[in-house]
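user: can you give me the structure for this one chain? tokens are fine.
assistant: on it. calling the predictor now.
[tool input]
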Amino acid sequence: MFYREGHWVVKTFWNSLYIAFFLLPLGINLPTPFFIISIILGIVNIFRSDKNLLFDNKALLLFPLYFIIMCLSLIYTDNISDGFDLLQRSLSLLFFPIIFLFVKEDASTVRKLFDFLLFGLVVSFVINFSFAVYHVLEVINERINSPELSLEGISVVLYAFLNGWDHLIGEEFSKLVNPSYVSLYILLVLSYYLKNTLQSRLQVLIIVILFLYLFLLASIAAYLILATISLLLVVSITDKSKKYTMMIVFILGVIVFLNNPRVFDFYTSVTDFSERLEIDNTSVEKSRLLTWNTSIALIKEAPLLGYGIGDTNDVLIEKYKELNYFHNYNNKYNAHNQFLQTFIQTGIIGFAVLINIFVLLAMRMNRSKNEMAVFLILIISLFFESMLVRFNGIVFFSIIIPLLLKKRSILSSRIIRNESTLESTTKTNN
């Protein structure tokens, strides 16, 4: 298999995680059995591991504490059923951080996680692109044969293509997994691999595919994250000639991404936000602003304990109705911001634990530009989506963040150098 060292329990644990990460961009049901297998074997490994490892990474215990606070919120929640459903989806927040307290990993082991996630992203791109092109061809054919269309010749084809193009981006492009989660996976994979120089045409091709994938997913949050990180990296370049070149590339990249039709929709939605505030808002971006406004109003009413994990969505929906946010009410939107979602669920106590996790993460990840880029990707993603509500987000964060919080960070250049030194020593001895 892919991981071949150590006891069979450890080997199966890592191999299950590799397969799960490969399947993660392909849907919610496919990776679940492999995550369950890895959890079971990870728990088994705890009983046969060195217990001294527990004291090396005590920061990981914040995740079980967060889970316990969620459990306690069931005491004062009315919708017990929804609360238990969320707890069931959140079990990985309890198990994986504890498992990683007793698991030793090196750079090559964790790199394979990103390798398999990368393979899964490429496969999901091919699948989504095939479905999207087929759908666009259907739309173009429908427009060309429409009896209501008075244009002729090339104008008909051009008009049909422009209408079809609108069906190739955004949610239309990602039918397997929510675009926000796929964008997060892509950004993290890019940040992990672009810290090294590209050495082959295949690597360049894969990076181009990932950027194209990101463009077609049309996630405004992902665009903002990408622009922020790119600008920080460009500014940090010391060689002036390289800095000017990269600044030109950055500006050209911004122009390309700004030409995505979804960006213009976002701009229009935000600029007329104050107009028609209380009617049926159909814009996703405008509805998100309304959601944040509603969440803040609810937090002010119950700041200490929140409303419990079972009642959070119910009180949001009722508040939408009270404020006449009909689009949000009809679509039953969550807070679309994990920090606000947690505050509504568990009050200031749960919010403080979540914030503390990211404060510690920021302190651990200030050693390099690459680590800081990963931190920004994670925290900005939480500002735009309630990532710890859906299984795809919960299981991903419960694995990646604990690995980042460990003293031997998975992105630490020190680990990479140790591995390179080991390889050099082996070659010398041979």
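assistant: here you go. The chain has a mean pLDDT of 79. DSSP finds 19 helices and no strands in the chain.
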